[in-house]
Structures are given as C-alpha cells and as structure tokens.
Amino acid sequence: MNVAWVVVLAVGAATILLKAAGPVFLGRRTLPPRVLALVDVLAPAMLAALVVTQAVGGDEELVFDERVAGIAVAGVALALRAPLLVVMVAAATAAALLRLAL
Amino acid sequence: MIVTRGPDRGPSSFPVPSKPMETSRFRDGVLAGLPLALAPLLFGAAFGVLAIDAEMGWAAAVLMSATTFAGSAQFAAAAILDTGGGALAAIVAAVLLNARYAPLSIAVASIFPGSVRRRLVESQLIVDESWALAGRSGRFEYGILAGVGVLFWLLWVGGTALGTVVGDLLDPNAIGLDAAFPALFLALLVPYLRTRRAVAAALTAAAITVVLIPVAPAGVPIVAASLACLWGLRR
Fold first, then answer.
1. Is residue B101 within 8 Å of residue A15, measured between CB atoms?
2. How many helices (H) does chain B have, and how many strands (E)?
3. Cα atoms in the Cβ-side hemisphere of radius 13 Å centred on B175
4. B72 contacts A11 by C-beta, under 8 angstroms
5. DSSP A80
6. Domain limits of chain A?
7. Is the separation of the CB atoms in B220 and B100 below 8 Å?
8. Which residues of chain A neighbour B231 with C-beta distances below 8 Å?
9. I need a surface site. Which of A74, B39, B43, B114 has the fewest CB within 10 A?
10. Distance in Å, alpha carbon of B129 to nearest chain A alpha carbon
11. Across the interface, which of B14, B182, B187 has its CB nearest the CB of A28?
C-alpha cells in the first residue's frame, strides 16, 4: 500500500470519528443547562474563528490580501441589511476586481 | 467521551419531526446551498488536480473526498505529499485541521434523528458551510444541514473526479470565492451577536485565532478558540 492510501485511510477514519463525536457519542441526551449554555456561545465563537481563519489565515502566518477588501465590503453590505447572497457576491466581486486591477 | 445508552432510549421517547416537515426542510437546505454550489465543484476540481500532481492517483483522491469531505485538510495533506513531506506529516496536519469538527458536531448533536448507525452516516454531512447555514434561523435545523451537506458532498466528490480527469475547471480565487466564505461566516455570525455573552465569545475567539495563526499549526487556533469558551463558562 503506497503512502497516499495510508494518508487517505487514516485521515478519513479520523475525520469520520470527529464528525460523529456529537451525534453518535453524545446523541440526544438532555444536556445539563450549563452545557447548553456552552453550546449557545460555541456557535458565535466558532463562526468568529472561521471568519478570521478564512479572511486572514495563511500557512502559519497572517496574510492580508484581497480577501480583506472582500470582508470589508461584506461588512458594509451587512450594515445595510443586505441578504446573505448579496453579501457573499459583493465580497467575491470586490476581491476578484481588486485582484484583476493589481 | 463515550456514553452508554440505555435500552429505554428508543426513538419514541423523543419528539421526532414529522416526515413532510423534514423533507421540506431538506429541500430548503438544498436551495440554501445552491447559490454556493460553484465553490465545492471548483475547489473539488482543484483538489483533484493537486492530488494528481502529488501522485496520489484518482481513486485515492476521490475516496478521500468521499470520506474526509473537508477542503482545508485535504489540500494540506495533498500539498504535503506533493512536496515529499511524508505520510505522518500529512496525517497530523489534516487531523489537526479537522479537529474543529469535534466542537462543531457537539453543538448539533441533538438534532440528528434515528439510530446510532444512521447518525454515524449522516453526521458525515457536517461541513463548515452546512453547519453554519443550519443555524441560520437561530436554532440548528437538521433538514437544512442534511440538504446543504448532501448537495456539497455530491459536488465535492464529483468535482474531485472531474479535476483528476480534466484538470482545473476554473481558478476559484479568480472569481473571489476565497473572499465569499469569510463573508458567509460573518453574515451568519451577526444574528448571534444579540447577547453580551455571545459578543464576548465571538471577540475572544477571534482574538485567540489571530494570535495563534502565526505560531500554531493550522487548525489549532480554531480549536483553542472553542476551548477558551468552555473555560470562560466555568466562572
């Protein structure tokens, strides 16, 4: 078995277990209020962390490129209460145009 | 955390959503995912191209997309193999990148219906986008997660297969797709910021992520951010 298959099988198995962690091992047990409160703050925390990694994350460095312009435009669109799709298209267009111009 | 489930925990003891309702939310999920559909297709194709470059072969590439189904981890693994980094380095990097799925899946644990086997299979539909869109209404909805997840899985696996055969379809970054995703997560974050605790959690997580990105391996910052929330709740 070559190296690629070892990686594919190991990463696949690990990821399947990670994704199953909640639904399979925790299931639908009624959680104590303290844990439910945790889940309430987990969503905004994870979304904020995703915004940062997707906007300025690089290979173990912060990278400020056209994505930053995109997220700034998205912020403006959100302030104007634009719908989700408009926010995304505005961000993508801003980044693509800037990339084209530079 | 392994929890033994008593035999009394049959599905009947839980309010199971009625079938038509579930189906219609599934359709809503597919519709919610459609505007984003270009992304898994193009990034999937880009992964296929990289995998061929890394001499993984088409079968391993497609199998990885079908089982791992997580963009950043797959790109990292293929890139490391491509540059001769070795199996262990590729596995460690990819698993670290996917470690965030533990907290993500715990947050939606209660919405999955059915038997353990069914939950094991359907939990694989959790990806960043399906997870984030499922919480759009303020509470996590299983139908939306499943709808977005199935659509993305098909396009991701199909895109990978296409990429291994025909090469790059179109550079996703050329049309700004890399900026569309932080915008998506930002748009989905905003409605949560109604309580002081949520704002504090989001700011803390963002700060931890910014600080850790330059010093920690990819994937660690986001997990550290979720652990910080756990710690913050203790007081």
1. yes
2. 12, 0
3. 12
4. no
5. T
6. 1-30, 32-101
7. no
8. none
9. B114
10. 10
11. B14
**From B19-28, B56-65, B105-114, B216-225, the region with the lowest mean pLDDT:** B19-28
B98 Cα to chain A: minimum distance (Å): 6
SS3 at position A62:
strand
- Which residues in chain B touch residue A11, judged by CB atoms under 8 angstroms apart? 64, 68, 73-74, 77, 90-91, 94-95, 98
Q: What would the DSSP string read from start to end of B134-153?
A: HTTTSS--HHHHHHHHHHHH
**Whether B208 and A78 lie within 8 Å, measured CB to CB:** no
Q: Which residues of chain A have pLDDT under 70?
A: 1, 30-31
**Residue B11: pLDDT over 70:** no
Q: Does the ipTM exceed 0.95?
A: no
> A23 vs A78, B2, B12, B32, B65, CA distance in Å?
33, 12, 17, 23, 21
